[in-house]
Amino acid sequence: MNNFAKIVLVQRFKKVSYYSLILNDDETSMFKQFMNKHTAENKNKLQHIIKWIGEIGEKYGAKEFYFRNEAETADASALPPIGVDREPTYVEYNETTSEDENISNNLRLYCLRANENVVFLFNGDIKTKDKAQDCDNVRKHFRLANKLAEVIDKAIIEKDIKWNHNGTDIVFDSDLELNW
């Protein structure tokens, strides 16, 4: 069976345009599936990632250090950025101490940072192991994100996806199907 994907715009900010993919005959993009699942299950963790998407998009641009490198040979990376000291912070209520605590967010959204102005948002889940490859929750999302990153990179090389005149966004036919 041939797999295919269609590119959809998620949102344009001042410095970054975010895209996602609709796979095969799904009606919902990968990023929307991620949002739908984690809105109920992991609301605060999801809001933390959404804030980062906005901050990166509006203020900073998609600089490499805002994205987690989950494996040395991976094309895909992840949000949120490493470190609890970065703004916006993720805060969770600790029932034991009855206080809010800044803690590390283990929800991962896999993505492709095409350049400082274009990011593809895929899917993800709660990471429970040090390495994405070892985690039953995120392994499939991580592998698929890397495969899709290769497909997108190939489409850029073959000029099915082109850069606009100043390299700040992509241009593609609305009926483009990325096959793998």
Structure overview:
By secondary structure, this protein is of the alpha+beta class. It has one domain. 27% of the residues lie in helices and 27% in strands. It is built from three helices and ten strands. It has helices at 30-41, 43-60, 139-157, and strands spanning 4-12, 17-23, 77-79, 91-94, 99-102, 107-113, 118-126, 162-163, 170-171, 178-179. A six-stranded mixed β-sheet has the order 3-6-7-2-1-10. It has a two-stranded antiparallel ribbon with strand order 4-5. Helix 1 packs across helix 2. The longest helix is centred in the last third of the chain and has 19 residues, at 139-157. The protein is globular, with a radius of gyration of 16 Å. The N and C termini lie close together (10 Å).
Low-confidence stretches: none
Overall average residue pLDDT: 90
Strand content: 25-35%
Sum up the overall morphology in one term: globular
Strand order, biggest sheet?
3-6-7-2-1-10
Give the count of helical stretches. Answer: 3
